[in-house]
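We read letters as residues; the integers encode the fold. Take this protein.
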Amino acid sequence: MKKLLVLVIVATTCLTAFCQKGYSDFDSVANVLVKTKIAHTSAKDDNSPLELSLYFQNVGSTDVIVRYQIFIEDNNGDKRHSGKKEVKLKHGQKQFGKISNLSYELFGTSINSYADGERKWYFTILEIKDMYTGEVIATSDKVEEVE
């Protein structure tokens, strides 16, 4: 029984560490770490669609709600958006990627088109609210207005 428990813990730790690989720091807002990752949906296929994955971690001592909205734009001016979303995070909790429904398909299959600015994605809302009062604690400075 102990061996099984150890095996489950090791497997979970490895899986969690692997899933977090490749995230880049985006911002830290009111003790919430925000990270992002752009990658192919299939790591073995460079022609597979791209997706943007979000990572939120509450390193503070208060339970919060992350409220956000993402816009995705290609070089022709076509835009899609996530709609306004809310993610609840208890203190110490993290949520990220597909497992938490925090992935969005991007236009195209070239990561370089996003690095070069030919295509882009951006937050139009990124704020932290108190989970119990609903009061806005902080708002990120790294948001863009919708044109």
Q: What stands out?
A: The two ends are 59 Å apart (CA to CA). Residues 23-139 form a domain with the Immunoglobulin-like fold (CATH 2.60.40). The longest strand covers residues 120-130. The beta strands are 24-29, 32-40, 50-58, 64-73, 79-81, 85-89, 94-96, 103-105, 120-130, 136-139.
